[in-house]
Amino acid sequence: MLSFTMERVLIIGAAGQLGSELTQALVTIYGGDNVIATDIQPQALEKFDYCRTKVLDVMDKEAVKGLVKTENVKQIYHLAAVLSATGEKNPLFAWQLNMDSLLSVLELAREEKLDKIYWPSSIAVFGPNTPKVNTPQYCVKEPNTVYGISKQAGERWCEYYFQKYGVDVRSLRYPGLIGYKSLPGGGTTDYAVDIYHKAIAGEHFVSFLKEDTYLPMMYMPDAIKATLNLMHAPRENVKIRSSYNLAAISFSPKEIFESIKIHYPDFSISYAPDFRQAIADSWPDSIDDSRAREDWGWEHEYSLEKMTEDILKHLPSYSF
Ligand code: AKB
């Protein structure tokens, strides 16, 4: 059994899709007194009645630094970001938020000699010239969304801070994450969350991606497991300091619809692709994550069918 030092953990952007579930998992490990969930929106923090909370704007460097020092924080999970679809609506703001916040967290880690930093990257680092099937860890990237450009640059900065200053920063290139405990915010893979809500409400679903658009995806419990496994792996096992490819399942809107229709036979779908189609078309269909499997023993658990069954079992009675 693994044992963990009871360090103070700060989560920035805790109320988002990933943070909502990761915070719960971190509290199970470190205890509610040692986990500080922060977000820019005060109401969004109300759900965290099992740990400490604080309203925090990640762009306010002095506030982040003050909190880290006064609370003796040793680990930061920096999750705040503008995602792919929202980023295209305000590219300069997305760049500023995604880059400035990462650089200030990395600088803080260097100055205050923090133990570990977690920062999520994404399949958005890949672009139209990337090999589409079984995309390797190392290949041409050339992302064409501002979100993808910020993630690629962020990966370079993570590796730089590790090589140059020894900052123990760890990162995963998440595929589209699917969970039922929070609503997604501004991603291209969000259709695969919305579709379950429509099925349960007995409504018709209009997909903003074409029926045969394959994207790499992952059920949230697998994403939480991967994140914690990476963060608790011995330092020497974490051999990639930019960001690890990570994969579980790959499916199209038609396939996820069919997996739901087995349980909701009257459910219906139509397709009305919008600007997000071009983003999805620039991303891989599937990912080769063999380095994560070799270096720190990554294994996913959920297939599309198993994920659909689990979501349809829990979502109808879940209250937001
Ligand atoms: C998005 O669609 O923007 C995100 C991602 C793949 O990083 N879910």
Automatic annotation (TrEMBL):
<dbReference type="InterPro" id="IPR036291">
    <property type="entry name" value="NAD(P)-bd_dom_sf"/>
</dbReference>
<dbReference type="Pfam" id="PF01370">
    <property type="entry name" value="Epimerase"/>
</dbReference>
<comment type="similarity">
    <text>Belongs to the NAD(P)-dependent epimerase/dehydratase family.</text>
</comment>
<dbReference type="GO" id="GO:0008743">
    <property type="term" value="F:L-threonine 3-dehydrogenase activity"/>
</dbReference>
<dbReference type="GO" id="GO:0006567">
    <property type="term" value="P:L-threonine catabolic process"/>
</dbReference>
<protein>
    <submittedName>
        <fullName>Nucleoside-diphosphate-sugar epimerase</fullName>
    </submittedName>
</protein>
<dbReference type="InterPro" id="IPR051225">
    <property type="entry name" value="NAD(P)_epim/dehydratase"/>
</dbReference>
<dbReference type="InterPro" id="IPR001509">
    <property type="entry name" value="Epimerase_deHydtase"/>
</dbReference>
<feature type="domain" description="NAD-dependent epimerase/dehydratase">
    <location>
        <begin position="9"/>
        <end position="246"/>
    </location>
</feature>
